[in-house]
Write a structure and sequence with these properties.
CATH class of the largest domain: Alpha Beta
CATH topology of the largest domain: Rossmann fold
Mean pLDDT: 91
Number of domains: 2
CATH architecture of the largest domain: 3-Layer(aba) Sandwich
Largest sheet: 7 strands, parallel
Helix content: 25-40%
Strand content: 15-25%
Radius of gyration: 21 Å
Order of helices and strands: EHEEHEHHEHEEHEEEHEEHEHH
Number of strands: 13
Length: 344
């Protein structure tokens, strides 16, 4: 495990005092994508660990701080954009981080087909820009790249491990593969402590409404409260390995505490269909999903990813990480949150 640092205390007169042990310096972390689901949970976790937290936020005419409003006064917010090299250099120089977590991305797979070039600029080239900023200003900082199970795409084996070949099926997946290999190359070429966390699907009440899990729980709440009658979805038989985002950010942190950089799959090792998610979510509200869910071809991807299932063995043995929230508990948590929000 990495030491937080030490300080030597000397006195000019008299005998030296008894050893007082290592005096830990406050760790500093820079999070890109601070205002996203993962960024908000990670910021909370790092603050609880005593870190000084800096967060990169893209300038906007709208207020993007909803997910971190409750901790906003405890975070240093920096303006920046993954498309702008100068702003990333400024952010690294100002924050002087010990750890950098790159969570910023155009993260909606469906939109990556409509915004392929933008997705590549942010999710792929943005990684290079940030790594280069770190290499020049804070080469000893530990770097975390948010890689994705979508890199596996048309899977070559099940479950997927750290050695499973990539076969992405969307511009998002392709961009993430680029970011993965740039992280690997900076590690091997410059000796940087740069690691990839290959995270499988992780959800929470803070998940964006455009993602299928949150679309379902929001729809359940609206139907239960009489605000709508039906919910239109795409492929109900797609299978995913779903976990709780709050658990997964702990794995990110653990990965950067290792002596040597590495790549690691973070997953539950269980798979569930969208149909199962619907069944549990509607059941939480005393409803039958078959009475309300309509399959709409508009929501089926051009190239579908049918099955994603991660093998978390390495995370368990190397990091000592285990997911704490079960699939059913996750679904119930999300439905309860949307019911409370829409009932207020």
């Amino acid at each position: 495990m990495r030491s937080a640092g030490s300080m030597l205390v000397c006195f000019s007169n008299g005998p030296l005092p008894s050893p007082i042990g290592d005096m830990k310096m406050t760790q500093r972390a820079l999070i890109t994508g601070l205002t996203g689901q993962d960024g908000s949970y990670l910021a909370e976790s790092l603050l609880a660990k005593g870190y000084e937290v800096y967060g990169l936020v893209r300038r906007s005419s709208n207020d993007p701080m909803d997910r971190v409003r409750h901790i906003k006064d405890d975070i240093h917010v920096l303006a920046g954009d993954m498309s702008d090299q100068a702003s990333l250099i400024d952010a690294v120089e100002e924050s002087r981080p010990d750890e950098v977590y790159n969570l910023a991305a155009q993260s909606f797979v469906g939109d990556s087909w409509r915004e392929a070039a933008y997705t590549g600029d942010v999710d792929a080239l943005g990684v290079t820009r940030l790594l280069e900023a770190i290499r020049r200003s804070r080469p000893n900082a530990h770097f975390y790249q948010a890689s994705s199970s979508e890199m596996f795409g048309k899977v070559h084996e099940t479950p997927q491990t750290e050695t499973t070949p990539f076969h992405p099926r969307s511009p998002y997946g392709v961009a993430k593969v680029y970011g993965y290999y740039m992280t690997l190359n900076y590690r091997e070429s410059f000796g940087m402590h740069a690691s990839n966390g290959i995270l499988f699907n992780h959800e929470s009440p803070r998940r964006g409404i455009e993602f299928v899990t949150r679309k379902i729980t929001d729809g359940v709440a609206r139907i239960k409260l009489g605000k709508q009658d039906e919910l239109r979805l795409g492929n109900l038989d797609a299978k995913r390995d779903w976990g709780f985002a709050g658990d997964y950010v702990e794995a990110m942190w653990l990965l950067l505490q290792q002596e040597e950089p590495d790549d690691c799959v973070i997953a539950t090792g269980e798979t569930h269909t969208v149909r199962e998610f619907c069944e549990i979510a509607f059941g939480c509200a005393g409803l039958d999903y078959t009475d309300h869910v309509v399959v709409d071809q508009r929501f089926v991807r051009p190239a579908e990813v049918e099955l994603l299932l991660g093998d978390p063995s390495k995370a368990r043995t190397v990091l000592g990480w285990e997911p704490k929230v079960t699939f059913r508990e996750l679904v119930e948590m999300m439905v309860d949150s949307d019911l409370a929000r829409l009932s207020a």
